Amino acid sequence: MDDAPESLRKANEALHLPEVKAWFVREVLTLEGALLQFLRKSGYADADAEDIRQEVYMRLFLAARKHIPNPTRPLMFKIARDLLVDRARRQQIVAIEAIENLDAIDVAIDEPGSDRTVIAREELRLLQAALNKLPKRYRDPFVMRKVQGLSVREIAARLGVAEKTVEMHLTESIRALADVLYRDGIELGGAP
Amino acid sequence: MTRESYSLSEAKSSCDTNASAARWLVRQHTSLEWRDTDQAAFDNWLTESPANITAYWRLEAAWVRADRLAALRGQFPDTDGQGRYGRIVSAIWSGVAVFVVLALVLVGADIYLRSTKTFTYATALGGQKTIKLADGSKIELNTNTSVRFATNGASREVWFDRGEAYFEIKHNAVHPFVVIVDNRRIVDMGTAFSVRHDSGELQVVLTQGRARLESIENAHGKAVVLIPGDIALASGNLISLIHKPSAKVADMLAWRQGLLAFDNTPLSDVAAEFNRYNREKLVVVGSNVRDIGVGGHFRAMNVEAFKRIAHNVLGLHVESRGDETIISR
How many other C-beta atoms can be found within 10 angstroms of the C-beta atom of residue B249? Predict the structure, then answer.
């Protein structure tokens, strides 16, 4: 692998950003629910909202690499608004409506979020509720992995499916679980 | 694991990016083998776009949050994999009603889990054993110790049920080695360390590199990063951290050579140390006897030598009663 040193150097750059990563998990992910709500009110849902969310995260990340923003919320929504304006310009039909909406929504999003801190028990309940929303074929392998600590091979044997299938189901479950966890906008219990 | 999953397609839409991130995440956390070439391919993917990094971090954080489910199991250590379900459920019922919800999932999963065996490595009283892991990491188990893996020898996650062990970990920044002890975990950051866990107290002695000691309950709570010479003692919600010179640290790891090292250690503690290794139990009677300071190195299995010293040097009365040996004035 000729480009290994180069790729490793780049990876190290990306991975040795523990502060950025900690900030991202602590500050950005906990705002995901608010961001998606804002996008929904602006007329973006599903795949469109996902695309915008990802773009927002990417730009936040690039900004944080230079200087970790504090607070995060205003910058996140500034980026989101800029993106929406860009989009609105490109899709001129919805332009006026979308931009008008932005000011009204601005007020709403600056309200303090509902309980950002929940106790551990609540977190467990939330995880549980999130798991329950997954289709059974995704949930079972995930529970076997996370509660029982089984390997993919063992899960496959137990469920009588191919290891590839187990991997695929785990892949789907973690995506769905992340969506539910972050959409509800609740973070792990902080300091009591 | 076949090769085709390595060539993850160029991710463009958020959906593709997420799917790729999820595939990498699952592979990293479940693969039995993780080669340098895998790492290089992952690094390449990750650095293709900042979007890949944020997508990966996002899913990884959710994956880690779901560890809480395992933490619950870790609080009810079991070594043979049987009877775990019953104990968890009864503990939940007798505990907090909210946990009932989880029990329901366990009921659902129980069909598959009832006959499950995890891979347990254990030593008997006085025993020692070295486990070599597929990635080149090494775990030395001291007396009366039990650890569990989800997979046979290739896992990067170990449940520490009881006893004492020394870990020499081949470091992988992306795929860190994790030792789960009750409601805490130790995450290696390029490390050799020893873990001791008995009567509710966790002791971590760090000899090389770095390791992070953190609570599973509260992923955003304070984590303690240990450096060589650091000794962390955790019990309940408290963690205390002391730093000792390397000679002291070496003494704490003398068990790896089958030795017990004491330095003005109260006789009652000395007896307790011997008792960890031997069926014959030393019982020290009398507070003025219990506090006598003892120094030096002893063979852990050689209770006789210690009894001779107690009698001949310290002038104490040593009397055997079945499996117990009473030391008194």
Answer: 18
- Taking the C-alpha atoms of residue B132 and residue B150, their distance in angstroms, rounded to an integer, is 15
Residue B57 CA to residue A21 CA, distance in Å, equals: 7
- pLDDT on residue B174: 74
CATH of the domain at B144: 2.60.120.1440
- My answer on whether B195 and B153 are in the same domain is yes
A116-121 average pLDDT score = 45
3-state secondary structure of B185: strand
pLDDT of residue A90: 66
Token readout for A93 is 């039909």
Q: Which pTM does this prediction carry?
A: 0.46
Sheet holding B324-328, edge to edge: B281-284, B324-328, B317-321
Cβ burial, residue B203 (10 Å; 0-12/13-18/19+)? middle
- Restricting to B residues 251-290, those with a Cβ less than 8 Å away from any Cβ of A are none
| Span B225-237, average pLDDT | 85
- A-B contacts at Cβ under 8 angstroms: 200
Q: What is the pLDDT of residue A120?
A: 53
Q: Say if the ipTM goes beyond 0.95.
A: no
Please answer whether residues B64 and B39 qualify as being in contact, where contact means their C-beta atoms are separated by less than 8 angstroms: no
- Least confident interval from A55-64, B32-41, B175-184, B192-201: B32-41
Q: Is residue B75 part of a domain?
A: no
Count of domains observed in chain B = 4
Contacts of B26 in chain A (CB under 8 A): 167, 170-171, 174
| Range B201-206 average pLDDT | 92
CATH 1.10.10.10 for the A120-183 domain, yes or no: yes
What does the pLDDT look like over B243-253, one tens digit per residue?
Answer: 888 888 888 99
CB B27 within 8 A of CB A143: no
Chain A residues 20-49 within an 8 A CB cutoff of chain B = 21, 24-26, 28-29, 47
- Helix (H) or strand (E) run with residue B181 in it: strand B178-181
pLDDT band at B84 (very low <50, low <70, confident <90, very high): very low
Asked if residue B268 is part of any domain, the answer here is yes
Q: Does A161 touch chain B (CB under 8 A)?
A: no
- Among A91-100, A166-175, B172-181, the range scoring the smallest mean pLDDT is A91-100
Q: Is residue B93 part of a domain?
A: yes
Q: Which helix (H) or strand (E) holds B297?
A: strand B293-299
The packing angle between helices B50-65 and B67-74, to 10°, is: 30
